[in-house]
Each structure stands twice: as structure tokens, then as C-alpha cells.
């Protein structure tokens, strides 16, 4: 799939970016060049120590910001596949710094598409979030705008470029997420919880990597791919991490949902079930739907279907959460 290909990851020093780098370096020996594009020189320096140039010759580092279209065009030179993971993503920060999030998440996405068209990139896979479905916060709204830019890029780009989006829930143990937050707070004996009924989707880093790889191989252009993943109750997560801690309810934060959603009722009209993944094919026409039916044994979901963390079938138990945390985060 990626033999003799050049791959660039924007935001490549983030949690998922680093997991993708490991995947490509250790499992895809035929990759021609792997470029980490990010604005954080310290994280790039740390990655260089982890992956020394003499042992991993395909790996390259490129300092830059997705807000800078000229820098992107320079970085995309002779690149075949772009994985767009760069984003500002913290919900409370977005509520108080909206323009900064718009500049990175929306205008940055536009810059990525434009640079890819200008330089002959073949494929873009953009990372999204469950918060982009029926958004109620600024972060989710910027990611929805970003998703729309990539999905509709097919209509104004030349034929060589395929763009798709992968949308998923909380990545287990990623920086700034609830698990490391709870683990740190558990040392104080008190776990702050916004709402007792809150639920979230859960995905591991490897599952996120697998989704990106599947999208690269299977996209026809214009899809939003959604994985089938379990949910958890935040109260159960608190019990898994700090069973003896006191639970302190602090109220829902600005822009925070009690339950997350990845496929809305409106999306259901153009969503197909491919087995391990869903594909939202809004505006792609009957031809693409038929392609998925033929090649992936896909079928349209029921009208009115909603894929949300409250009604999602598999919920992780407290013991399952402890096992996953120990395996994927450390304990």
C-alpha cells in the first residue's frame, strides 16, 4: 500500500502522530520517506532521540505551522500521502480563544487542501472528532468546518487528489485527555466530575492508527469514516482509576456535551455500515454507495439511526477499563 511512497504527517509530534510514525517505521519498511511536520521543535528534538537518523533513514522532520500555506507547499513537495493531524483541540481553551482555533483548525485545513492541490499530493486523510457531529462548542464547530473542507475538496480539486476524514472518540491516554487527568487528581483523593451521567466513546491509539491505514487504502474521496468502538461511563472510569477517591461534582463545563455523537440522524440517510467501520457518504451520489455495497458488503443504516455514546451497545466495565488503562497507558 505504501511501498515506495512518501508520507507526511501534520501534527506528527502528537500522540497519534507518534503512533503512526512507529507504525510506518517498524511495519512498512518499503516506505520511501516519512515527514513529521509540526511547530514544536522540542517535541521534534525528543523524537529525533527516539528515532536516530542512522537507524531510521526514511524519517525527516520539518518545522512549520499549518497556518503558513507557503511552508506547507514547501513541505508537500514530492509527497504522496498527507495525514492531517495538526489541530488545537481543548474544548475550554476554544471557548475563550475562538479566533486561534479558527486560524489553525479551519484556515489551516484550507491551507492543507490548497497546498496538496498545488503540489500533486494524491491522498489526504484528515483526523476529526466526535465533537464535530452536531457541535455545541467552538472546537467541534471548527472541526466540522474542517471536515466539510476535506469532504468537498473533491468538487474543486483536480482528479489526482482524494480526501477523506476519519472521525473517532476519546483516544485512550492521549495528552490532555480525561485518563491522565484523573490519574493525577487521584493522588489528591478527590476526582472532579462534571456530570454523573456523562458517557464517552473510547478508542486506543492502535485502533486510531488502523482506521487511518484503512482509510488510505479504501477511500474513494469525500467520505467520513467512523469506527465501531465501545463507550464508557465517566463514573465507571473514575471508579477504575480512583476507587477510594471522593467524587466531587463540579458541573458541566462551557461547550461540553453529556453524551457524544459520531453519526447524527441526518447523517444516517447517507451512511453505510462496512462491518468494522461506518462511512458517511454525504453528497457522494449513488455510484459511491454502490461501490461500498459491492466491495465492502456495505449496507445503508436504518433511517433515523444515531451513533452516540449513550445508546452505543458495548459499554466498558470497570474491570475492562482498568485492564485497558494498564495495557495502553500504564498504571
Description:
- The protein is an alpha/beta fold and 331 residues long.
- The chain has a single domain, classed as Rossmann fold, CATH 3.40.50.
- It is built from eleven helices and 17 strands.
- Strands 3-2-1-4-5-6-10-15-14-16 form a ten-stranded mixed beta sheet, sandwiched between helices. A three-stranded mixed beta sheet has the order 7-9-11. A two-stranded parallel ribbon has the order 8-12.
- Strand 1, helix 1 and strand 2 form a beta-alpha-beta unit.
- Helix 1 crosses helix 8, helix 5 packs parallel to helix 6 and helix 9 packs across helix 11.
- The longest helix has 22 residues.
- It is globular and about 55 Å long.
- The model has no long low-confidence stretch (mean pLDDT 93).
Topology:
Blueprint: E1 6-10, H1 15-27, E2 33-38, H2 41-50, E3 59-63, H3 69-75, E4 81-84, H4 91-96, H5 98-119, E5 123-127, H6 138-156, E6 162-166, E7 170-171, H7 178-186, E8 190-193, E9 199-203, H8 205-218, E10 224-227, E11 231-233, H9 234-241, E12 246-249, E13 261-263, E14 271-273, E15 277-280, H10 285-296, E16 299-300, E17 307-308, H11 318-328
Parallel strand pairs: 1-2, 1-4, 2-3, 4-5, 5-6, 6-10, 7-9, 8-12
Antiparallel strand pairs: 9-11, 10-15, 13-17, 14-15, 14-16
Helix pairs in contact: 1-8, 3-5, 5-6, 9-11
Amino acid at each position: 500500500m505504501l511501498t515506495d511512497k512518501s508520507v507526511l504527517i501534520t501534527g506528527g509530534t502528537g500522540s497519534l502522530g507518534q503512533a503512526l510514525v512507529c507504525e510506518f517505521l517498524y511495519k512498512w519498511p518499503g516506505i520511501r520517506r516519512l515527514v513529521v511536520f509540526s511547530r514544536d521543535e522540542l517535541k521534534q528534538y525528543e523524537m529525533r532521540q527516539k528515532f536516530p537518523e542512522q537507524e531510521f533513514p526514511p524519517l525527516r522532520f520539518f518545522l512549520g505551522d499549518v497556518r503558513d500555506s507557503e511552508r506547507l507547499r514547501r513541505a508537500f513537495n514530492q509527497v504522496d500521502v498527507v495525514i492531517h493531524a495538526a489541530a488545537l483541540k481543548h474544548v475550554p481553551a476554544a471557548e475563550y480563544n475562538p479566533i486561534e482555533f479558527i486560524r489553525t483548525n479551519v484556515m489551516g485545513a484550507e491551507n492543507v487542501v490548497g497546498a496538496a492541490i498545488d503540489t500533486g499530493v494524491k491522498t489526504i486523510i484528515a483526523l476529526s472528532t466526535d465533537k464535530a457531529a452536531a457541535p455545541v462548542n467552538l472546537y467541534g464547530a471548527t472541526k466540522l468546518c474542517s471536515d466539510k473542507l476535506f469532504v468537498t475538496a473533491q468538487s474543486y480539486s483536480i482528479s489526482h487528489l482524494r480526501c477523506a476524514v476519519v472521525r473517532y472518540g476519546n483516544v485512550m491516554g492521549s495528552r490532555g485527555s480525561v485518563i491522565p487527568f484523573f490519574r493525577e487528581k487521584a493522588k489528591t483523593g478527590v476526582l472532579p466530575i462534571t456530570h454523573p451521567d456523562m458517557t464517552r466513546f473510547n478508542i486506543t491509539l492502535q485502533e486510531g492508527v488502523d482506521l487511518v491505514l484503512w482509510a488510505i487504502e479504501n477511500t474513494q474521496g469525500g467520505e467520513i469514516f467512523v469506527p465501531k468502538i465501545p463507550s464508557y461511563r465517566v463514573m465507571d472510569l473514575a471508579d477504575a482509576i480512583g476507587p477510594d477517591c471522593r467524587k466531587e461534582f463540579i458541573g458541566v463545563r462551557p461547550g461540553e456535551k453529556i453524551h457524544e455523537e459520531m453519526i447524527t440522524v441526518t447523517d444516517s440517510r447517507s451512511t453505510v455500515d462496512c462491518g468494522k467501520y461506518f462511512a458517511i457518504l454525504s453528497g457522494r451520489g449513488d455510484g459511491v454507495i454502490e461501490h461500498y455495497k459491492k466491495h465492502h458488503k456495505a449496507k445503508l443504516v436504518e433511517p433515523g439511526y444515531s451513533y452516540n455514546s449513550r445508546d452505543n451497545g458495548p459499554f466498558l466495565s470497570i474491570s475492562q477499563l482498568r485492564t485497558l488503562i494498564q495495557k495502553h497507558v500504564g498504571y
